[in-house]
Amino acid sequence: MARGILYGIAVSSGISIGKAFFMDRSRQSAAHDIIQPGAAESEVARLDEAAAQVAADLDRARAQVPADLRDHAAIIDSHRMICRDPKLMGDAARRIREQNISAPWALEQAVDAIAQAFRAIDDPYIRERVQDVRAVAERILSRLAGNARELKSTGERMVLLAHDLTPADTIELQVSRIMSFATAEGGKTSHTGILARSLQIPAVVGVSGLEEATADGDLVIIDALRGRILIDPDEHELAEYTELKYQFESYQRSIRRQSTLPAETLDGYRIEVQSNIELLEEVPQVLDSGADGVGLYRTEYAFLARRQPPSEQDLCDEYSQVAALMSPRQVVFRTLDVGADKMLREQVRMEEPNPALGLRAIRFCLRHQDVFRTQLRAILRASVHGNVALLFPMISGIQELRQARHILQEVRQELDAEGIPHAPDMPVGIMVELPSAVLIADALAHEVDFFSIGTNDLIQYSLGIDRGNRHVSYLYQPLHPAIVRSIKLVVDSAHRAGISVSVCGEVASDPFCLPILMGMQIDSISIAPQAVPGIKHIIRKTNMEECKTLTRDVLNATTVSTINRMVKETIYNRFPEELTFFSSMLDTDD
Predict the structure, then answer these.
(1) Cα atoms found within 13 Å of the Cα of residue 492, Cβ hemisphere only
(2) Which of 4, 174, 198, 291 could serve as a FRET partner for 75 with CA atoms 20 to 30 Å apart?
């Protein structure tokens, strides 16, 4: 039996067996020193010099990124910007001057202030960007402490363990030598996860006790199917996992060979399988996955990763490249889904007691129309490629939607007057993610060309829980009767009005939930690129009539426990082998 088993979050599937190698053991400890009166400016200069040195380190790492690791380059670029971020560095400098404290202490306080603001954000992708701020701060703290952060190296392939990990770290350690990795920090949407998926290596993050329980040279098994790490496994466990590793890799090769085949059930029902992305650099991964298009392009990154708001031309160039690379496959651009608590540094920040229910998404855009119009112009200009659609987030009612469409029409007229080409019939849809939108879906369906059901937010808003809060996360149940019936109501409303409906979010890539969505006869799903081959494989082995029967039974049930038990039994019986390689949100006991 293994000496120890640790648990975390699997962010890049696979099995890895090898010797552990620690990059570092813990966060840099900030010196909490009071400085002498009159020494503030020299301390600010010391902070600026440390940040400049880290920026230079990142510049060198960026220059070494291979052409095929575009995700690495994009993340390093964002870290370079954080080094020069006036919000972070300016706040730290202000604290030095006002409190007469040392640069490390001031930087630590500035990072904590940013982290507190990020905790109020309901979007997990945006919320976990605080890890990038912490990673950069760690490098600056090392420089302030007089350390050049020289990473020890090894000539062998390794299972890399770290408190946290950045693309710059992997470049310095040589990517080719990393078999897999595990970190104490991070979540599903952290850049650590993106990094692992771009490298296509197994990874588990958010591992409690990682630094205390393991040492360099320990033989470890990274089980990135179940989110486990086995330390010093015995012979039986080694044999078991060696066989599981072989089976998984064989399965992956099999489904990838078939990934370009259509997602069509055994009895002829076809569903479009698209991808969710947020970076231009992810487009090759979408194409390689066999996805039918981009069902959700999150446009926030271009705004949040810059010190200055992107220009219309910046956005047009980005959107046009995505559309051109994906052509003729459709690309759905979601307009800015941010709030006053997480918007551009140059915008006036509003103090909101509950940002998740405040000025965010379409509400923010309608308030800040200069930003909104710039983005709409860029999307319309990119629509000349003929495969672009527009998606408004967090629509709560008809009036809000009509106001957004009115601004869109004004922007169209401006482009016409300027002689700038754009597609006159670009499809316009809305995210259905609020209970209010569900209840008036029949009316909204006559105002748009398509629906996209955002299940992550719909579940949280409908059930009134934050799945990031460990005290109530057990209540995050995707097959709660209220959620299932809400989705059915939206699908039926869309089809009665003659428009298509897509489902995005983790529910769409969950093999236990997907057959229920199919039984409702949704038109498409949009999921992470890495999930596409496996989900298409599941769909091709499914019978639509069976899905309809299961869906009817689920809709008639009244408790979560009954539904989860019913679905688990049905799906396990139908796909006993495939489910070995899938995780599910239903894995949590009711």
Answers:
(1) 10
(2) 291
Residue at token pair 């992107």: 310
Task: Mean pLDDT check: name the lowest of 292-306, 466-480, 544-558.
Answer: 466-480
Q: Which positions ≥6 away from 165 have C-beta within 8 Å?
A: 23, 181, 183, 186, 192, 195
Question: Taking 90 as the threshold, does the pLDDT of residue 287 lie above it?
Answer: yes
Give the pLDDT confidence score for residue 509 in this predicted structure. Answer: 87
Over residues 131-159, mean pLDDT: 72
Strands 219-223 and 15-22: antiparallel
CA distance 368 to 340: 10
Q: What is the mean pLDDT of the chain?
A: 85
> What digits encode the pLDDT tens for the residues 360-380?
789 889 998 999 999 999 999
Residues 204 and 274 in one domain: no
456 assigned binding-site residue? yes
* 422 vs 55, more confident: 422
**pLDDT reported for residue 340:** 41
Of 523 and 359, the structure prediction assigns the larger pLDDT to 523
Nearest to 160 by CA among 195, 130, 123, 187: 195
pLDDT score for 346: 38
Domain count for the chain, please give it.
3
Out of 252, 287, 312, a domain closes at 252
- Write down which residue in 145, 175, 201 finishes a domain: 145
- Counting residues of the chain whose pLDDT is more than 70, the rounded percentage is 83
Q: Please provide residue 316's backbone torsions phi and psi, each rounded to the nearest 5 degrees.
A: -60, -40
Angle (CA) 23 26 28, round 5°? 105
Q: Determine whether 495 is an active site residue.
A: no
Q: Does 62 count as an annotated binding residue?
A: no
Cα–Cα dist 317/269, whole Å: 37
The residues facing 90 across adjacent strands are none
Q: Are residue 191 and residue 272 in the same domain, yes or no?
A: no
Q: Is 457 within any annotated ligand binding site?
A: yes
Q: How far is CA 470 from CA 7, 124, 264, 353, 457, in A?
A: 15, 14, 38, 21, 17
* Selection from 481, 475, 444 nearest residue 558 by Cα: 481
Whether the CB-CB separation of 395 and 437 falls below 8 Å is answered with yes
SS3 16: strand
Residue 97 among known ligand-binding residues: no
Mean pLDDT of the 259-279 span? 93
User: Phi and psi of 245, rounded to 5°?
Assistant: -60, -45
pLDDT computed for residue 69 by the predictor? 58
Q: Which residue has the tokens 């992956």?
A: 252
DSSP-derived letter for residue 266 is T
Confirm whether 191 is a catalytic residue: yes
The answer to whether the annotation marks 345 as part of a ligand binding site is no
Q: 177 and 140, same structural domain? A: no
β-bridge partners, 360? 339
Residue from 504, 513, 537, 547 carrying the catalytic annotation: 504
419: alpha, beta or left? (left if phi > 0; alpha if psi -120 to 50): left
Is 590 known to sit in a ligand binding site?
Answer: no
Q: Specify whether 423 is located in the same domain as 496.
A: yes
Q: Can you spell out the DSSP letters for 474-493?
A: GG--TT-HHHHHHHHHHHHH
What is the DSSP secondary-structure string of 385-410?
Answer: GS-EEEEE-S--SHHHHHHHHHHHHH
72, 79, 163, 191: the catalytic one is 191
